[in-house]
Write a structure and sequence with these properties.
Length: about 190
């Protein structure tokens, strides 16, 4: 009888020890899961522009980021904090000035616009480069003007086979997952209001 009590006591101690270990392991796993979840929440608070997705067709922002000829445009979009606007479902047409187009502006213009105190003016200029829709260069020939994201109209002009948006010539077009990027040779400046 004594050996049965000893065996039962030993079994109970072993069971409690194992159960305590399981609780510790479960607590550790719960803590790890909460940590991963909080990391995901922190990451998602930055917005959908910061979600990595290698399987989808690149969106307009990803196309600009991937182009060495658009590093100034990307820096401007980041300074104006417009990344999330460029990754929404769209469709969006972005008229993307090249680095050379930004370099053609008067000296100091880009540097001045990138200052935090000029964020609103910069955002207005960048929004003047975005139109709702997904139209090819040829289809744009049917328009006289486009309504831009900054609530102003931009003129469309056709000269032979060339299409000009606000005086900027479309030199190439790249389809995107949420619209199209029309590469232009000038920065399109909105009219003064």
């Amino acid at each position: 009888m004594k050996s049965t009590i000893k065996l039962s006591t030993l079994g109970l101690i072993l069971l409690l020890t194992l159960n305590g270990g399981c609780k510790d392991r479960a607590q550790n796993e719960t803590t790890a899961a909460e940590s991963n979840t909080s990391d995901a929440v922190i990451e998602s608070n930055k917005g959908q522009a910061f979600i990595e997705d290698d399987a989808s067709t690149p969106n307009v922002l990803q196309i600009a980021i991937g182009s060495p000829d658009h590093s100034t445009l990307v820096a401007a979009v980041q300074a104006a904090e417009l990344e999330n606007a460029l990754v929404n479902a769209g469709p969006l047409m972005v008229f993307a000035p090249t680095n050379a187009a930004f370099d053609a502006l008067p000296a100091g213009t880009v540097e001045d616009l990138l200052k935090p105190e000029n964020k609103e003016a910069l955002a207005n200029i960048l929004k003047y480069h975005v139109t709702p829709g997904n139209y090819s260069k040829d289809f744009l020939k049917k328009f006289k003007k486009l309504g831009q994201a900054n609530n102003q109209d931009v003129p469309v002009e056709v000269k032979g086979d060339d299409v000009f948006i606000g005086g900027a010539k479309i030199i190439a077009s790249v389809p995107a997952g949420n619209g199209i990027v029309h590469i232009v040779d000038k920065v399109i400046l909105p009219p003064a209001q």
